[in-house]
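The protein record quoted for completeness.
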Amino acid sequence: VLFRSDAACLSEDEATSLGVPLGRVRRAVFGTAGLLAAVAVCIVGPIAFVGLLAPHAARLLMGPRHDRLVVASGMCGAGMLVLADVVRQFIDLGGGRVPIGVVTALVGGPLFLLLLLRRSVVR
């Protein structure tokens, strides 16, 4: 499965010549990604920026190979959430701690915009 994901990143002619059924792979990836995104948003809700930024951070650290990227994305997401929780512990507003969703949104929003701007400049 991971080889097909790597091969599907090639051009259509190259992927087809390697025997990758692009139509089926694209439908499977699209459906799986949609289902996983829906489940993740239902579970985590306000900390959704972690799910948006972790794969980008993992790709910067590990490169484009999908077999490494899957594990690295999970590890980056866990690390980001732990760091956000550490920051949250230091902020006390008198009536209690700041919700972790606020910390992830304050940090994740500008970082995500930076990623979008960087992508639009490159292309």
Summary: The helical segments are 2-8, 12-17, 22-44, 48-62, 66-90, 100-122.
